[in-house]
Amino acid sequence: MIKCNIKEFCLLHDMLSRPEMNFFDAWLNADAKGQVPDNRYSGYIRNSISSPLDGFAAGVFSGIAEYWRADRPVDKTYRFIPNIAGIDMGKSVSFLAEEHVIRDGRGAVKFMSLLRRKPGLSPDAFSCAWRGRHAALVQSVNEVWRLFRGYRQNHIIPGTCRQLDGSEMTYPYDGIVEIWFDSLPDLQQAMMSARYREVVRPDEETFVALPNTRMFSTETIVFPANSGLDETVE
């Protein structure tokens, strides 16, 4: 049995297209009214999505709620949805994922990317390539790895990816990666380095379908996750 934390993600699409701080204030107000996770959860992070680099789109989501599940066995049908006015339930997405911590740590800048597997690749083959060969490759490239302050792979549990209106996604996500850096220059240095472009990126393209959704997050730890590892769901 694989040991890992089970996380729940809620990707929020703002139909009102509010500026980043206005959307975040609405989220804070919803939480202040008691709309916070119950004892099914052991950790909660608000990710406010931003675009700090010129020419880098913020993407279709304004925020990502990130929860660590505490219920055992995990109820895969239950989801916590932040009660924020103006959320488009048909364009917002929720899923459960197995968290694999490759490097435990955080930094001032958080990079996130939503991944889909290449056509013809099974979920198991995608996870094996990402967690095994690719993680080892990234760690072997010192030019890139030394700049990572934290690196977490979240492997989406098949069948759990759905829109918040309850409908299934035609083309569901397979993973979401979180990478922390000390600064934006460090992120740019890692992603633009010759070794990343010549070694790491080509390996990603053997199992990840392109293009993928890339985002920057300003994270707020509402309450920290339990540090213990838990059993995965069946």
Question: Which key features would you list for this structure?
Answer:
234 residues, alpha+beta, Alpha-Beta Plaits, 8-stranded antiparallel beta barrel, disordered C terminus
List the helices and strands and how they pair.
Elements (H helix, E strand, L loop, with lengths): L4 E8 L7 H13 L8 E10 L12 E7 L23 E11 L5 E7 L7 H18 L1 H4 L4 E7 L5 E2 L11 E7 L2 H9 L1 H11 L8 E11 L11
Antiparallel strand pairs: 1-3, 1-4, 2-3, 2-9, 4-6, 4-7, 5-8, 5-9, 6-8
Which spans have pLDDT < 50 for at least 5 consecutive residues?
Answer: 227-234
Spatial shape: globular
N-to-C SSE string, H for helix and E for strand: EHEEEEHHEEEHHE
| Biggest β-sheet description | 8 strands, antiparallel, barrel
Percent strand equals: 25-35%
Q: What's the level 1 CATH class?
A: Alpha Beta
Rg calculated over all Cα atoms? 17 Å
The CATH topology comes to Alpha-Beta Plaits
SS-derived structural category: alpha+beta
Helix share bin: 10-25%
What's the CATH architecture? 2-Layer Sandwich
Number of domains: 1
Which strand order spans the largest sheet, edge to edge or round the barrel?
1-3-2-9-5-8-6-4
User: What is the count of β-strands?
Assistant: 9
Q: What is the terminal-to-terminal distance?
A: 9 Å
Helix count, DSSP H or I runs of 4 or more residues: 5
Mean model confidence by pLDDT: 90
